[in-house]
Amino acid sequence: MDAPLVPDAPPAEALAALDSLMAQGAAFLGSRYAIMGGAMSWVSERNLVAALSNAGAFGVIACGAMEPDRLAQEIVATQALTQKPFGVNLITMHPRLDQLVQTCLDHQVGHIVFAGGIPPGTAIKAAKEGGARVVCFAPALALAKKLVRSGADALVIEGSEAGGHIGPVSLTVLAQEILPHIRNVPVFVAGGIGRGEAILSYLEMGAAGAQLGTRFVCASESIAHANFKRAFIRGAARDALPTIQLDERFPVIPVRALQNAGTRRFLDHQAETIRRFLAGEVEKAAAQLEIEHFWAGALRRAVVDGDVENGSLMAGQSVGLVTREQPAVEIVQELVNQAAHALAARRG
Ligand SMILES: Cc1cc2nc3c(=O)[nH]c(=O)nc-3n(C[C@H](O)[C@H](O)[C@H](O)COP(=O)(O)O)c2cc1C
38: Cβ below 6 Å to ligand 1? Predict the structure, then answer.
């Protein structure tokens, strides 16, 4: 018989032992569990963020390209749905990064997550002086150490199994490279995590907690379009692939997503643009821009409009572990119970 989807309540001692493994991460976040809901543009808005925080995890608003006024509205709306702490994820190349930091501070956001590159020292300083805790993504050990020296209060290490924009290294390797050496700030692991057993194993390796994105897309509270959720429920790990780059002269930003007509057309688009460049019909810089513009607005098309053929279906390899729509609290409880059951089994 298949294992039940929501396992029976684990023994109290195992839950207590899990609590102590999560203690540093949970204290840092101010949440019941050291589980972060990774910010996902268009998906991580007030409803999912509040639902995750209310479920004992830690929701994070994805600011994406929002302007400061729009972000302020989203923060206020989230605060109306939860009394629990949540964070805001800011993309470092946003042209109004400083104002976005100030917007978070003006609205008493306790945690600012800087993503999409190394944040400028001024942004880290402003966030900290304003009373927020700063979380940064560390793609390698040297950068992890540099970010801690620059004032990061916690780090996320995200493996290439993750959905969305990815680096080249898997979490299995990043965790070994970074966890043993960064002991002075909490380190959260991300990428490819879909079950509690995996969270437990990274906690045992020294992680303070875990950040999951893909696993939360199909939460009942997530406003992602039904077509987007259906694609996740149908998708297997092998369908969530990184973008293919055709020519090293025209770099593309690697994004892991479910394959669809859009990803296939992107190959044709690159090939045709490169052909026009070689034929002298378009300058190199203009050709590069044409390639980069292909995906503009594509995540919104899929998440909000439900165009799962032409939009971007950003998803991690853990998409294969998403099997149905469930309330956020059920997903969080399932992860915690799986971790605690594994811990109980290990300790006999
Ligand atoms: C649809 C989607 C959109 C995402 N958008 C963002 C984003 O705007 N900013 C960011 O820092 N990470 C983004 N991510 C990454 C998540 O925050 C998280 O780190 C990642 O999903 C963890 O890996 P997993 O998908 O394997 O759980 C996105 C991921 C997905 C699946």
Answer: yes
Q: Which of 1, 86, 116, 76 is nearest to 328 (CA)?
A: 86
Is the CB–ligand 1 distance for residue 48 below 6 Å?
no
Beta strands 255-258; 240-242: pairing state = antiparallel
Which residue has the CA at smallest separation from atom 14 of ligand 1?
40
12-224+322-346 CATH fold? TIM Barrel (3.20.20)
pLDDT, residue 346, reads 87
Q: Which residue has the tokens 């972060």?
A: 36
Could you tell me which residues come within 8 angstroms of residue 87 by beta carbon, excluding any fewer than 6 positions away?
Answer: 29, 36, 39, 58, 59, 60, 61, 109, 110, 111, 112, 113, 135
CA of 126 from ligand 1 middle (Å) equals: 25
For 106-129, the pLDDT digits (tens) are 999 999 999 999 999 999 999 999
Of the candidates 329, 84, 346, 326, which has an alpha carbon nearest to the alpha carbon of residue 203?
346
The full set of domain ranges for the chain reads: 12-224+322-346, 236-314
> CA of 118: how far to CAs of 125, 179, 231, 315, 341, in Å?
13, 19, 32, 23, 38
Q: Can you tell me whether residue 18 is helix, strand or coil?
A: helix
- 260-302 pLDDT, tens digit per residue, is 999 999 999 999 999 999 999 999 999 999 999 999 999 999 9
DSSP labels for 83-146? Answer: SS--EEEEETT-TTHHHHHHHHHHTT--EEEEESSPPPHHHHHHHHHTT-EEEEE-SSHHHHHH
Distance of CA 164 from the midpoint of ligand 1 (Å): 5
Distance of CA 66 to the CA centre of its chain: 17
